[in-house]
Amino acid sequence: MTALAVEPAPLARAVDDDLEARLKIFEEILLKWQPKMNLVAPSTLKSIRTRHVEDSLQVTDVLPTARSWIDLGSGGGFPGIVSALRLRGEPGAMVYLVESDHRKCAFLREVSRETQAPVEVHRGRIEDVLESLPKVEAISARALASLAILVEMSIDRLEKGAVAVFLKGQDVGSELTQMPIYSSLTTRLVASRTDPQGRIVILGRSDLVSASGVGR
To answer: Of all helices (H) and strands (E), which one includes residue 139?
Structure first.
């Protein structure tokens, strides 16, 4: 794959008082559950807001018009819960959280109850659950798998009109090189606000992922 130009990081939308309060509830529940399971790396516990929450907020910033999402491997709620809280109150907002670990599903359900986030938690392997979920506008994932695997799991939905937003780290270049070329998809690369080496990978049909159509 030809090297992609890296676009500027997305502009950060303001966090209003309601969203701030619900994000704090989310963080408190995460800290309560953290000793029971490894929801986030212990080394990042003192920087949950910058390392995890603010990183996750970028997902809806680059695709601000999408109201329905599938979040793959939701785990500790990043970015799925954060996206849902950002979208809370929007007509038609729904984030389908897909997670195979039953304990993490219990955590996600508690967060959704306490924050009133518009989510549905679906327990199971991604390849088994995806077929049962409704049509959505977008798909997200963070720290889950290589781009090749993520696209392979999502390709049917991407070809039918969903747009993928994947948060990736410093290995994104090699992952893009190893990803098969899909003639039906266009890829964009956006800089991360929270990680100088991080990138936001946007994939979808060219008519949906043009520079004028996503995040601008």
So the answer is: strand 138-142
